[in-house]
Design goal:
Structural class: mainly alpha
Helix content: over 70%
Order of helices and strands: HHEEHHHHHHHHHHHHHHHHHHH
Strand order of the largest sheet: 1-2
Number of strands: 2
Strand content: under 5%
Radius of gyration: 40 Å
Largest sheet: 2 strands, antiparallel
Distance between the termini: 71 Å
Number of helices: 21
Length: 374
Amino acid sequence: MRLKFLLIIALILTIVLTLFPDIALQTLRIEAFGWQFETRQGAFVVSLLLIFGVLWLIQRLLSALVAGPGQLWQTLRMGGKKRREQRLRDGIAQWLDMRGDHGKRTFKKSRGIIPDWAVALLKTSTISASDQTLAASDDDRLLIALSARIASDPEAKPRPDIAIRKAHLEAWLKSQPNSPLALIRMADLAVEEEDWKHAVKRLENIWKHGYCSASRAKPKMAQAWLALAKQEPKHAMEYLRKAYRMQPAGSAVVLALGHAHIKENNNKAAEKLWLGHLLQQNHLAIADAAFELLNRNALAAFRKLEKQQGTAALEWLRARLAHAGKLDGLAEEALSSLLETDPCREFWRTQADWLTQKEHWSEAMLAYQKALDC
């Protein structure tokens, strides 16, 4: 910037002195401390500009000598600092936009401008997930982490084989055992492999250490405990209780735990669990299971729920119990109210079944059609 400013001033003065030669030939006299200096104005201005130019050149030479021959070579090879920075910026832009060679050529020329480890990271970042090679154990841990992060990216398309992703993550954890992202992705990988015991251990570990929020970890832990309950029926109740602690509002967990209570001949526990759930959660699958449980004593169950205020699923259960208890008027009134406020396939199908029992075929057919359209 200073050089440009100096050149502009020199150009302006040159034009002025050319247009007005009389000014350049006028005598300039300077007196100071008893000394007297006399010269032409044009010669004085030219000399002053030459002095400034020589001083700037000396400054640049001294800077190059202090920086060493390597910096001088970089300057000759890639231009000044601003030019080098601009080329590097263009290379990064190519990498971000995936244009040209993705900046590989620029990154290669940038050796010495940026550290070698940064050049390696930039080169690795241009490689897609499916083409990432497993880093050697003696490689820079940042390079190992970046390669594994790209290879295990859940949004990558196409995704590498699960064994390759696992090898990358194991290498990452070997170099950085407490890496939160590596632990999270290893837990996700265990879920994907359906290795539920390892999934539970890893999910508990990352949750306890604060690497993952409860809202993200608990549903996955509940899923793992639920799967373990299916794999090991002898420990099903233990695993289902753990799943319920993780996700008390999850319909799949509540449904499975209720069936486990029934299997142990504890119908009261299943009834309490399901009805309590329906007071807060609108899950029709739970309401359907509760109806199968309470249908034997439908009228008594209806009287028990008659004044309970809950979700639409609870209202549907109550209407079905009323119908099973021969309270057709109350049942149809409740179901009609549900169809007005919250029409869905299950409600229309219930009405169609009731109409079929009455042999109202055309109305039943219309209700079945509405159920299919939902």
